[in-house]
Write a structure and sequence with these properties.
By secondary structure, the protein is an alpha/beta fold. Helix content is 34%, strand content 16%. The protein is built from eight helices and ten strands. The strands form two sheets. It has a seven-stranded parallel sheet. The chain has a three-stranded antiparallel sheet with strand order 4-8-7, covered by helices on one side. It binds 2-amino-2-deoxy-6-O-phosphono-alpha-D-glucopyranose.
């Protein structure tokens, strides 16, 4: 099963992610990072930026692939995921923007953009570590409930709930939130060599419990991670609030040999 790490707060989660990724880049300067948007990974990126600076790690060759993008939103829009990834990851970490890919949400090329994106990931050698948040309905990337567990990168229609959740990034105006997106598929995400899902807060508790302790179902896309050989959930107490076996996960982690890493 996935490793479940219940942490004190976002800082502790961010430190775990940052250690793992900084160690990876230190031994493999050409590492390929899977990048996510949303508020959840922000602290983790901040910790990674600090580690890179403090340890003097060369990131000039690091490659990155974002999970998703809104369809039809101009890339220069401040809430396009290209802009968000540039602002929250590329600039603070000092990555080379030429090595960072975001699915192309331009309407003219949308029908073929997904397959091209998956080819680009494969050509880069696949993703080493994919960071994920989770939607309140269990979505990962923008794979809404019902998404094929074998899906590749493709166009999806956003649910009303996701659009409402994301309206805060568009001045609270639901009409401004795009209706469609292009997202790495669940099958694409499962190909990453290590997947780290972060979740914080009570409003993620049900989705987290469904993902870890529910059946594998396209109705909870994150439950597909039960099929992944190296998945790590790093969650706070509030997000762990609906887990039946939380004590067992705590015990397992507390007794884990230090050399194992995450
Ligand atoms: C969006 C993103 C997801 C993210 C989710 C949760 O839908 N496409 O990748 O996990 O939001 O966002 P937040 O982390 O802000 O709760």
């Amino acid at each position: 099963m996935a490793e479940i790490i219940i942490v004190r707060d976002q800082d502790e989660a961010g430190e775990l992610y940052a250690h793992c990724v900084a160690d990876l880049i230190a031994v493999n300067p050409f590492a390929v990072l899977g990048l996510a948007t949303g508020s959840t990974p922000l602290t983790a990126y901040q910790h990674l930026a600090w580690q890179i600076r403090d340890r003097g790690i060369d990131v000039s060759h690091v490659r990155g692939f974002a999970l998703d993008e809104y369809a039809g939103l101009p890339v220069e829009h401040p809430e396009s995921y290209r802009s968000v990834i540039t602002r929250t990851v590329v600039e603070p970490l000092g990555l080379d923007p030429r090595h960072i890919h975001v699915p192309d949400g331009a309407l003219e090329t949308l029908p073929t953009a997904g397959e091209e994106y998956d080819r680009a990931i494969a050509a880069a050698g696949g993703i080493d570590v994919q960071i994920l948040g989770i939607g309140t309905d269990g979505h990962i990337g923008f794979n809404e409930p019902g998404s094929s567990l074998a899906s590749g990168t493709r166009v999806k229609t956003l649910t009303e709930q996701t659009r409402q959740d994301n309206a805060r990034f568009f001045g609270g105006n639901l009409d401004q939130v795009p209706t469609h997106c292009i997202t790495q598929g669940i099958g694409t995400i499962l190909k990453a060599r290590h997947v780290i899902l972060l979740a914080f807060g009570e409003n993620k508790a049900q989705a987290v419990a469904d993902s870890i302790e529910g059946g594998i179902s396209s109705f909870c896309p994150a439950s597909a991670l039960q099929l992944h050989p190296h998945a790590t959930f790093i969650i706070d107490e509030a997000a762990a609030g609906s887990l039946k076996r939380a004590d067992y996960y705590r015990w397992v982690y507390a007794n884990k040999p230090e050399w194992q890493g995450i």
